[in-house]
Structures are given as C-alpha cells and as structure tokens.
Model the fold of this input.
Amino acid sequence: MNKIHPSVVLGPDVELGERNVIGPYVVILGPCRLGDDNWLGPHVTIGGPPEIRGHEHPAWDEPGHSAGIVIGDRNVFREFTCVHQPSHGRSSIGDDCYLMNKVYIAHDTVVGDRVTMASSVTMGGHVQVGDAANLGMGAVVHQRRVVAPGAMVGMGAVITRDVPPYALTYGNPARVRGVNRVGMQRAGVPDAAMDALAAAYRADASPEAVPGPVDRYPELAEAFAWWEKARGGGSAA
Done:
C-alpha cells in the first residue's frame, strides 16, 4: 500500500510501486514510473514538461508525449524538489538518493544510485551524475556536463567542466582541487589508490583526462569506465 495525501495530483501514465509516502500537494505527471519505498515531501513536482521554449505544454490531466521518467527505490525527495520530463529519450533517478529541498533536475538528466544533493542544487538539461556523487548546497551544473561517480562538488560551485571520478571540486568556475577521500574510503578504495589519484589530479593540467592510476588499481576501474562512456556521448546508467 502507498500512503498518498488527498491533495496529491497524479496524472495519466503514472505507475507507483509499493510503500511510497507521497506528501501534501505533490504533483506527478506521466509518463513516470516510481519504484518502492520512496518518500516525497510537500510540493514536490515530478514530470512537468521540459523548460524549452516552443516545447509542448499539455494540461496536467493529459498524457505526456515523452519516454518519461523512471525513479528507483528508497529515494527521498524533500520539499519543492522538481524533476522535469525529458525532451527526448528518458530521464532517470536510481536508488537510495537523497535530494534536499528545492533541488532542480532539468530534462534528459540521468542520476545514479546513492547520490546526495543538498538544498537548492540546480542542474541544466542532459546532465549525468554517477553513483555516490555528493553535490553541495547551491551547486549549479551546466547543461550536458558529467559529474562522475564518487565526486564531491562543493557548496556554491559552478560546474562548467566535467568532474572526473572521486574528484573534490569547488569554486566559480569550479576546478578539481583534490580527491574525495571520504567517498573513496566508503567505496573501499585503498589508501595507495587514493594517493596515486590525488597525485595525478595535481600533476595533470587537464584533470578531465583519465589519469594513469586507473591502470594500476582495479578499484578505480568501474568509475572510470562509467566516466569514459558518459563523456563519449551516451548515457552511462
């Protein structure tokens, strides 16, 4: 059973899993598939049309005309979070994500598992965010940028370049300043791999390039494989 407040609006083509809690004044427009055990706070809006001038804006009770949004399990959407429909293709959010209040996820965005976004994170269209990335309060991600798995984006950062795996990134414009050691420890990456990756990011004038340590430490291989696929133009999810 789902627990749905009487004020909630569910449009056509919305599929709900089990044990979801959907709070007051939430609006979900289809196509959208919501998994199990998600928590949606007051005034969350999922499935509005993409913010593209000239794009069709159907009424709330009309079926949408995109491939829709797919949301996994055990996610938290805090108050006033907004997720838009894709302009083409599919938008998706994985499992176990925590999206704090006023997060904005624009059209054609793919978010992995265990991602944390602090209050007022703003993402342009066609963004990809890898597993276990952490975006600080008020961070802004330019459209078509990639934030790789395990990356830490600092508070107020303006992301105009892709963020490589496990990078610590902050500033305006944001630049790679080191590695996310806490995230790497949680992922089971050994200290030697952390040190090697940190040294590579310091030495490389272009931290968008894949550094050498990935060849020596298999613990880094999966994150960098995702990074290469995402930056090649396709979805890495």
